[in-house]
Write a sequence for this structure.
C-alpha cells in the first residue's frame, strides 16, 4: 500500500494535484489506515496516470471524468476527437510561427512583396531610413484598406521613383535634421512645386493627386508628420506655392 506522497511520485504529479483530483471527484478517496492516513493500491497509480495524461493533453477536468467512465468504444472515439483538436492547435501554432518569422523579416510582416521590394530599392538608393519608414507606415494601412489597388499604386510609385521623386526623397533625407527655416527646405519646396505644376499640366491633376479617400489620406499624413517632422513644414511651404497635402496632393490655386 502506498502513501499519498508515494502515489504522487509514481504517477508523476504533486500531492496537491492528487488532493485536487480528489476534490473534483476524479480519483476516489481510499480508506484510511488505523493511523488516519490514506493508503493507495496499484490501481490508484494507473488511474492517476490516466487522469494526468488526459489533463496534460488539455482535456477539461469535467470531460476527464466522463472519459474515465466511458466504455472502450466511447473512449477511443473521444481520444480521436481530442487528437483532431490537438492537430488543429498544432496547425494554428505553425501559422503563429510563420507570422513570427515574418515579423523577424521586418517590412514583410504587413506588406505585399512589391511594396517590400520598393522600400528596399529606396534604401539601396541612399534614402534615409526615416523617410523609408514614412513610406512603409503609409503603405501598411493602404494595403490593408485597399489591397486590390496595390499593383496599380506601386506601378505609379515606381515610375515616379525613376523621375524627380528620388531627388525629392534624397533632399528631404538631408533636411530631416535641419531647422524649419533651413534654405534646403525652401529650395526643396520650390523644386517640388515646380515639378508638381509641370506634371499636373502634362498629365492632369488626378495623376498628381491620386484618388485616395480623404480620411485615409489624413491618417497617412499624420503618420508622416510623426515620423519626419520637417514634412509638416514642407507642406506649409508647398501651400504657399499653390499645393497642399502630402499623401493626396491638390492644387490650391489655378496654374
Amino acid at each position: 500500500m502506498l502513501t499519498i506522497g508515494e502515489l504522487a511520485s509514481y504517477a508523476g504529479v504533486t500531492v496537491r494535484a492528487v488532493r485536487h483530483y480528489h476534490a473534483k471527484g476524479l480519483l476516489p478517496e481510499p480508506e484510511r489506515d488505523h493511523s488516519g492516513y490514506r493508503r493507495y493500491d496499484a490501481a490508484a497509480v494507473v488511474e492517476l496516470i490516466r487522469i494526468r495524461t488526459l489533463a496534460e493533453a488539455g482535456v477539461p477536468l469535467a470531460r476527464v471524468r466522463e472519459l474515465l467512465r466511458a466504455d472502450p468504444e466511447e473512449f477511443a472515439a473521444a481520444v480521436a476527437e481530442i487528437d483532431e483538436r490537438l492537430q488543429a492547435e498544432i496547425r494554428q501554432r505553425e501559422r503563429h510561427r510563420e507570422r513570427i518569422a515574418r515579423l523577424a523579416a521586418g517590412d514583410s510582416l504587413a506588406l505585399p512583396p512589391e511594396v517590400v521590394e520598393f522600400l528596399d530599392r529606396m534604401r539601396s538608393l541612399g534614402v534615409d531610413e526615416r523617410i523609408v519608414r514614412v513610406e512603409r507606415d503609409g503603405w501598411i494601412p493602404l494595403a490593408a484598406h485597399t489591397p486590390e489597388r496595390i499593383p496599380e499604386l506601386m506601378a505609379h510609385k515606381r515610375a515616379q521613383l525613376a523621375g524627380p521623386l528620388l531627388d525629392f526623397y534624397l533632399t528631404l533625407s538631408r533636411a530631416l535634421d535641419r531647422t524649419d527655416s533651413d534654405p534646403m527646405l525652401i529650395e526643396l519646396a520650390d523644386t517640388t512645386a515646380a515639378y508638381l505644376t509641370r506634371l499636373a499640366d502634362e498629365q492632369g491633376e488626378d495623376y498628381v493627386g491620386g484618388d485616395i479617400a480623404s480620411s485615409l489620406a489624413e491618417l497617412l499624413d499624420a503618420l508622416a508628420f510623426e515620423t519626419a517632422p520637417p514634412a509638416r513644414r514642407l507642406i506649409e511651404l508647398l501651400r504657399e506655392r499653390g499645393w497642399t497635402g502630402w499623401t493626396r496632393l491638390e492644387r490650391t490655386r489655378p496654374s
Remarks:
- The CA atoms of residues 14 and 66 lie 23 Å apart.
